[in-house]
Design a protein that fits this description.
Beta-Lactamase; five-stranded antiparallel β-sheet; single chain; 3 domains
C-alpha cells in the first residue's frame, strides 16, 4: 500500500538503521540507503528535532516524523514544489471551468445575432484577451464586426462596424474558410491597420485567430490579442477554442432563430385579415382579435374586393378550428375568393363556386375542414343609399342599425361551406339609407364565455342590447365597441377568434373613413386610420 503514497516513506529501527525506503523517498532523498544508518545519508534535516521544510537538490521538501512502536521511527517526505504545482493547476482548471460555465449561461440568452455577437466579445475580455474582435461571415460582400477593448477598472467598451469582405486581413479570411491560422508576426499589424486594436501597442503584442463553428461553414472568427508580456500558451489556446465553440453555437442558434422569426412574421402578415378596399359611399369598420394573441392569426377573416361596375364584394367568415392550421385554411379560402369574384359577382352563385373549390382543396389534402360565411355585394346609389345583396353559408345573421334606432336581424340562413357538393345557400337583399349600418360578426362574439361565473355565453340578446342606441356611431367606432364589450365580458378568460365587419352608408359624395383596431403584440389595441 505504501508504494502508492504520494509522500516518500522512510522507516528506521531503534538503532537508526533504515529498514524500509519507498520509491518516492528514493527519488526525493537519494542519499538514504536501505540497510544503512540514517545518519550516514548526511541530510541534516533528517536528524533535526523539528525538521519542517528544507531545500534539497533544487526542490522544496517537507519532512514529518512519526514515532512507532518498539522505538522505531518513520519519516514522511513530501515534495512541496509538486504539491504547489498541482494545486495551481487545479485552481487554474477550476477557474477555466467556472469561466466556461458563465459563458454558457450568458450566451444562452441572446436570441438576436447582434446581441449574441456583442456578448461574445464582452465575455472574452479580459479573461482571454486585452482586445477581442468578432467578425461574422460576410453577407452581400460585407462583413460585420464587433470589438471589445479592456478598460482599467471598467467594463470593456463594445462597438461594431462594417468592412468590405475584400478588405479583411488574410488570416481572418482563412479563418472564415474553416482553418485556424498559425500565429503570424504581421497579424497584429494588420489588425491595428484595420482599426480593431485601439490603444494596443503592436510591438510585443500577440494575437490568435480561431474560427467559430457553424452549421456548414464557420459562423465567424474570433481574434484575441494581448499586450506584451501576456503570451498564449497551450492551455490558453485550449480555453480560447472551447470559448469559440460555445460562441459559435450561440451565434448559430441566434441566426437560426432570426431567420425563422422573419419567415414566421412574413407568413403571419400574409395570413392576417385584409382590410376592405375603399368604396364610394361606404364606410368600413373592422375589429379582429385572434384566440391566440401571440400568433396574431386565427380562423376568422373578412375583406372586400372592388367590382368593375363600382360595387364591392364583401365577406366575413369563420373556418373550423383555430391557430396556425385554421389560419392556413383561411388563407386558401381568401385566395379562392380573390380569383372567383372576377368571374362571378352574384353572391349566391359565387358562394357555391367557393364551396366547390374548397371541397377540392380539402379532399386533395385530407383536411376535412369547413367554414361559415356571409358574402355580399354592395352597390351605391346617387342618393347616398346602399343596396346589399347577401348570401349566407351557415353563418350568424347580420344586424342592421336603422336611422330610427331600431336594430333588425337580417333573416339570412344557409348551409356550411366545404361540406357537401350542393349546399343550400340563403340569399337576401337589404337597403341602407344614408347613416344606416350593417354589422357582420363571428361566433367569437356571441359564444364568448364570461360573466360572474365565467361560463355564461355573451349571446345574441346581449349583442342586440350592446348595439341599441349606436345607430349614429361611425362604422369604425361601432366595430370597436363590439370588440370592447365582448372582451369586457370575457375578462381575462380564453376565447375564440373574434372578427367584426361593419359597413355604413355615408351619403352622396361623402368618402368614408376607415379605422381598424387589432390586438398588438402586448395585447394593447393599436388603431390605424385611412381615408377611402
Amino acid at each position: 500500500m505504501v508504494e502508492h503514497f504520494r509522500e516518500g516513506l522512510i522507516v528506521c529501527d531503534a538503532d537508526g538503521v533504515v529498514r524500509h525506503l519507498s520509491p518516492v523517498a528514493e527519488r526525493l532523498v537519494p542519499e538514504v540507503v536501505a540497510g544503512e544508518v540514517l545518519a550516514a545519508a548526511s541530510v541534516p534535516a533528517l536528524l533535526a528535532a523539528d525538521p519542517g521544510e528544507f531545500a534539497h537538490h533544487g526542490r522544496r521538501l517537507r519532512l514529518r516524523r512519526v514515532s512507532l512502536s518498539a522505538a522505531r521511527r518513520c519519516w514522511y517526505v513530501e515534495d512541496v514544489t509538486e504539491s504547489v504545482s498541482r494545486a495551481d493547476a487545479l485552481l487554474a482548471e477550476r477557474a477555466r471551468s467556472a469561466f466556461l460555465a458563465v459563458v454558457g449561461e450568458k450566451l444562452g440568452n441572446p436570441l438576436h445575432p447582434d446581441r449574441a455577437a456583442a456578448a461574445v466579445v464582452r465575455l472574452a475580455v479580459p479573461t482571454l484577451a486585452d482586445a477581442a474582435v468578432l467578425v461574422l461571415a460576410p453577407r452581400s460582400g460585407r462583413a460585420r464586426w464587433w470589438r471589445a477593448v479592456r478598460a482599467d477598472d471598467e467594463a470593456p467598451a463594445v462597438d461594431s462596424g462594417m468592412l468590405a469582405a475584400t478588405a479583411l486581413p488574410s488570416a481572418i479570411a482563412e479563418g472564415l474558410g474553416g482553418a485556424e491560422p498559425h500565429a503570424l508576426d504581421w497579424l497584429v499589424e494588420q489588425a491595428v491597420e484595420a482599426g480593431w486594436l485601439p490603444g494596443l501597442d503592436a510591438a510585443g503584442a500577440t494575437a490568435r485567430v480561431v474560427p467559430l463553428p457553424g452549421r456548414e461553414m464557420p459562423a465567424g472568427v474570433l481574434l484575441v490579442a494581448r499586450r506584451a508580456g501576456r503570451w498564449y500558451d497551450d492551455a490558453d489556446l485550449d480555453l480560447v477554442r472551447a470559448f469559440a465553440a460555445r460562441a459559435g453555437a450561440a451565434l448559430t442558434t441566434a441566426v437560426l432563430y432570426r431567420d425563422q422569426a422573419e419567415v414566421a412574421d412574413t407568413l403571419q402578415a400574409s395570413l392576417l385579415p385584409v382590410e376592405p378596399a375603399a368604396a364610394t359611399g361606404v364606410q368600413w369598420g373592422t375589429a379582429y382579435r385572434p384566440a391566440q394573441a401571440g400568433l396574431r392569426i386565427g380562423g376568422d377573416f373578412y375583406g372586400s374586393h372592388r367590382l368593375v361596375d363600382g360595387g364591392s364584394v364583401f365577406f366575413l367568415g369563420d373556418v373550423s378550428g383555430k391557430g396556425v392550421e385554421a389560419a392556413v385554411f383561411t388563407g386558401q379560402l381568401r385566395q379562392c375568393l380573390h380569383a372567383l369574384h372576377r368571374v362571378e359577382s352574384q353572391p349566391g352563385r359565387l358562394l357555391k363556386l367557393l364551396n366547390d373549390a374548397l371541397l377540392e382543396t380539402t379532399q386533395a389534402h385530407g383536411q376535412g375542414r369547413f367554414a361559415t360565411m356571409v358574402l355580399g355585394v354592395v352597390r351605391p346609389h346617387r342618393d347616398g343609399s346602399l343596396t346589399l345583396t347577401m348570401a349566407g353559408g351557415g353563418h350568424l345573421p347580420p344586424l342592421v342599425l336603422r336611422a330610427s334606432g331600431e336594430v333588425e336581424v337580417v333573416p339570412l340562413s344557409g348551409m356550411l361551406i366545404g361540406v357537401v357538393p350542393d349546399p343550400r345557400i340563403g340569399e337576401v337583399t337589404v337597403h341602407l339609407a344614408p347613416g344606416e349600418t350593417c354589422l357582420l360578426y363571428s361566433d367569437g362574439v356571441t359564444e364568448a364565455r364570461g360573466g360572474r361565473r365565467g361560463d355564461e355565453q355573451f349571446g345574441a340578446e346581449r349583442l342586440l342590447h350592446a348595439v341599441t342606441g349606436c345607430h349614429r356611431m361611425p362604422a369604425p367606432a361601432l366595430a370597436e365597441r363590439i370588440e370592447q364589450v365582448t372582451c369586457d365580458w370575457l375578462g381575462h378568460g380564453d376565447h375564440d377568434d373574434i372578427a367584426v365587419l361593419a359597413l355604413r352608408a355615408t351619403g352622396p359624395g361623402r368618402p368614408g373613413r376607415h379605422l381598424h383596431a387589432v390586438q398588438g403584440p402586448t395585447g394593447a389595441d393599436r388603431p390605424r386610420e385611412t381615408t377611402a
